[in-house]
Amino acid sequence: MRRDIDPAEAGRRAFYQLLTAVVVPRPIAWVSSLSAEGQPNLAPHSFFTVACADPPVVQFTSVRRKDSLRNIEATREFVVCMATEPLFEQVNATGTTFPYGYDEAAAVGLAREPSARVAPTRVAASPVALECVLHATVCLGDSTVVFGRVVHAAVDEDVLDGDHPRYDLMKPLARLGRDEWGLARETRWITRIPYDQWPGHFAGTSEPGGAVRGDDMDVAGG
What we know:
- The structure is a single chain.
- The protein is of the alpha+beta class.
- It has a single domain (7-182), classed as Roll (Pnp Oxidase, Chain A).
- Helices cover 17% and strands 33% of the residues.
- The chain is built from six helices and 16 strands.
- Strands 3-2-6-9-10-5-4 form a seven-stranded antiparallel sheet, with helices on one face. Strands 1-13-14 form a three-stranded antiparallel sheet, with no helix packed on it. The chain has a two-stranded antiparallel ribbon with strand order 7-8.
- A hairpin with a 5-residue loop joins strand 2 (29-34) and strand 3 (40-45).
- The radius of gyration is 20 Å and the shape is globular.
């Protein structure tokens, strides 16, 4: 049995809670920005992903008009810092609804460091920082999607395996539903299967009509 839910009947808050519980895990953009007057701001945003590879563009969503959005509209620059397990409490605390102009990093005892290409500073303890300039914003209902072109990336050597940032070493946090957070605990490896090697190592079972079904693998297609 499934429960059928109509967003209009459920109401905004209830359906928001459903979406954030089932679209998981969500990476966190820990956004550092500056106001037009130069006041720093740091806030976590869990509607975050890569939007484009060439040019490199990331996106996050400001649900309603948050301070990060106001600052980025004014200055057109921001930094996405990686939210990590060792910084769990600080990441959560910077999500507090402080008054506009409040310095969240100072309030939670986080040190900042200068960025290389933009004015907003980076979180010194975060292993990865993506320095961005505003590419565009798109308004959708009560939210605004912010697209930032990445002009510089700074990655700690301690989390690199050669040139590859390792998930288990970065220990990124993820947001789930309610007050739940996801932690980096396991990494599974599987190579993409070239078409001329199909089915290769695929462990699915053949079904009538030639369809192939796999119950425990998720390999993105082209």
